[in-house]
Amino acid sequence: MIIMMNTTSPDSIQRVVEKLKQHSLDAYCVTSNGKTLITAVGDSAAHDSDLYERMSGVEKVVNILTPFKLVSRELKADDSLVHVRHVVFGSPLIPVIAGPCAVESPEQFLETAQLVKAAGASMLRGGAYKPRTSPYSFQGLELEGLKILRTVSEQVDMPVVSEVTDPRTVELTLNYVDMLQIGARNMQNFALLKEVAKTDKPILLKRGLSATVEEWLMAAEYIMAGGNEKIVLCERGIRTFETYTRNTLDLNAIPLVKHLSHLPIIVDPSHGTGNWRLVTPMARAGVASGADGLIVEVHPCPEEAVSDGPQSLIPQNFTQLMTELSKIAAAIDRSV
Asked: I need a surface site. Which of 65, 106, 213, 308 has the fewest CB within 10 A?
């Protein structure tokens, strides 16, 4: 990875790219934190770092051995902070995102928003577009749902995150939400990743159903290489042989990702377990493992929810969870 100076001219960048190609290295230019970064892919033994550091406009050369370059801790030692309006991911303060799986009506979403805000949640979640296993299941209110999200978000003064499932709806969704979510089923939908990379909205990137940590970080690399650095990773459980839970929540991934990458990472104990009884203990474990946030499904009447009722907390459960999380966060010098 060759990091160019802020004042570097296009000619200097081009000369570096041409020199890399002379040494049979593939060169890709991206912009990060206002600087041009040139990633060189190929045999590391085929080039001399000192050669490039002496070229005009080059600030420094960083040898990165991992396949994910821009999201790597090798490139950036300090933790990245991702701002979603007044909410910050990656700081000592741990934000909690809460709300129903799906937006069902203005009344349902407003009631839930008011309840989770009173309990201490920082952001709202709610699905307007719902990718479902069955084509006959509720698919979301789509545009009507987006309008409800925006209206309620303004009423309670809380940022909102919602999932995008199709590159064709990204531009529309941008008008209504503060953060775009890439769901587990779309983690490797590369057309969608490239589309959200063009936006200036923060991205919540969920881990795929059976994705390795490297595949997950490479998906984040797609977004960052496309120009969007505002990425928050989300561990939401992976598919294993276990059938008593919806997924197996991989808390190993939290400290591992924080070692490998500078991006903030949060935990979704709702999808990670699929059982409301397990959400609170796994949320506590997520904070204890070093997560930079949580996303929890809450519904005022889960038995009537159109989707994911069995894993949704009722408001009383969520209020108790927030009280317990504060104690755990304090034990590791953080706060909720």
From this structure: 65
How many residues can be counted in the chain?
Answer: 336
pTM, entire model: 0.91
Q: What's the CATH number of domain 2-61, 3.30.200.20, 3.20.20.150, 2.40.10.240, 3.30.70.1140? A: 3.30.70.1140
Class of domain 82-331: alpha beta
Q: What is the pLDDT of residues 265-308, one digit of tens each?
A: 999 999 999 999 999 999 999 999 999 999 999 999 999 999 99
CA distances from 46 to 73, 74, 111 (A): 24, 20, 61
- What is the tens place of the pLDDT at every residue in 135-165? 877 788 999 999 999 999 999 999 999 999 9
